[in-house]
TrEMBL record:
Keywords: Glycosyltransferase, Golgi apparatus, Membrane, Transferase, Transmembrane, Transmembrane helix. The chain crosses the membrane at residues 7-25. Residues 200-324 form the Alpha 1,4-glycosyltransferase domain. This is Alpha-1,4-N-acetylglucosaminyltransferase. Belongs to the glycosyltransferase 32 family. It is found in: Golgi apparatus membrane. It is a single-pass type II membrane protein. GO terms for molecular function: acetylglucosaminyltransferase activity. Its main location: Golgi. One of its GO terms (biological process) is protein O-linked glycosylation. Pfam families: Gb3_synth, Gly_transf_sug. InterPro entries: A1-4-GlycosylTfrase_dom, Glycosyltransf_32, GlycoTrfase_DXD_sugar-bd_CS, Nucleotide-diphossugar_trans. The keyword Transmembrane helix applies. It comes from Galemys pyrenaicus (Iberian desman).
Amino acid sequence: MNLLREFYLSLLVILLLVCGFLYQFNLKSSSLFTYLYSYKPQQGLEAVLSQGRSIVFLETSDRTKPSPLASCAVESAAQVYPERPVVLLMKGLNNSTQLPSNLSDPAFSFFSEIGNVYFFPLDMKRLFEDTPLFSWFAHVNVSAQSNWLHVSSDACRLAIIWKYGGIYMDTDVISIRPIPEQNFLAAQSSRYSSNGVFGFLPQHPFLWACMENFVEHYDSNIWGNQGPDLMTRMLKIWCTLTDFQEVSDLRCSNLSFLHPQRFYPISYIEWMRYFEVWDTDPSFSNSYALHLWNYMNQKHKTVVKGSNTLVENLYRKYCPRTYRDLIKGPEVSATREMGTGEK
């Protein structure tokens, strides 16, 4: 009996020690588990994107956590498209096991609670396989390229939407209502296309032609040459463009060219208006999303809590978790480091 009692006591001590160890480990690594949940490794990139309905964001720098503005873009998309996967591809996550350097970042914590948000590594070489961009990427001297982060982002967005379909958005685009179109480009102004938002069904021939033109007319020294300029060049080949009438979209062949009001009701010349106080907040009733022109924000204008600026009210309405968790104190930058998808 004494031996049996000693055995049970020893077993109890071991169980208590194990429980104590697991408790301490859980405290120290709770952020790790939070991130692993948000990363959703049980579903691979192919499985998520193969539905052809994803909302896709890109980060082609080495950063491993989204800026507050990128966080707002992702959250607002997840809110507007609850039945569609919202995917952020980050080059900084360079393999399937690498985790962000800051596991306790609040953005990953609240994204873990949003079931349709996914983070995946961006593998450019693999992405460009079986596209006209593969040979270009294999031979390009990255260190010698001007605007490489933006040029590579321009290439990636073409390849991923051609391969899988869905909607691409820059990480400074705040979604406010669903886009009802499948094959579309967004007019930045009359007869000039943006590449900050576009959507197509998988393997659409327009995007294949864009990738061919990307390679044929490649010049990283010209800002926008592989981006909005490319989309505009190809649109002119694809369609006979006319001026917009009132707030109507243009239809051409099997794609739509959406009125500037859909995404650019505030033009790039007036981008500062996002940081002003309006007498009455606009309804943006003709818009599907708002492009905040973060590339223009070279002086890093900030979201000031309690300022009642348009951008603060947009955060509060369309990305409330970002506003709650990332916009703290009297003044926090909306941009901090600019993401490469924020043009």
